[in-house]
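look at this one:
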Amino acid sequence: MYHEGEVSYEPVPLPDRRDLSDSEMAEKAAEFFDLMKRRHSIRAFSDRPVAAAVIADCIATAGRAPSGANHQPWHFVAIADPGMKAEIRRAAEVEEQKFYAGGGGEEWLKALEPIGTGVDKPHLEVAPWLIVVFAQRYGVTRQGNRYKNYYVPESVGIATGFLIAALHNAGLSCLTHTPNPMRFLNGLCNRPESEKPVMILAVGHPAENATVPAVAKIKKPLDEILTIF
């Protein structure tokens, strides 16, 4: 958190220390990998309700992510209101029409063909929750003084990763959506000019007929994403 006035470093003993044996560490690592490899992005959601408390706990988990100077430069807006979701869908589809009409460029559109995306975004209304992720480009104190945040994209990216993992751990599915531009979300969500909307997560349970693109099951092997010295 940002603090005005004089601040100083004050170390405290490490809380919540975990001391696992080598075998316990290996087991925990394998268990979490098994959990996360079962995470899939979906576009067909059930309208089955999800308790607000579950969403709040998952966002609280995101709030535990590390951040530059511990400024925690993020804000999450969780939306279940049908009218707001419909407005987000309408605005997003306007931008998607421009994108798929050629604004995205031939290479990008070709890359999306195996994913099966398109202009229509019904999941933005059907999913019981939309979580809008805002990045705080700079902070403002209660006295109206502006201060700098550090490593904002990196910090918000880490927090969003925490959130996606927490949602999956809770038995929920989600889809990342990044319409561009998204400035309409500031007014809709009553967020200040200092914040930039960077992502919408559609969150809920998968529909009975939910599918995933076959290509999405193809992940790079470990030897292509890991180097050990």
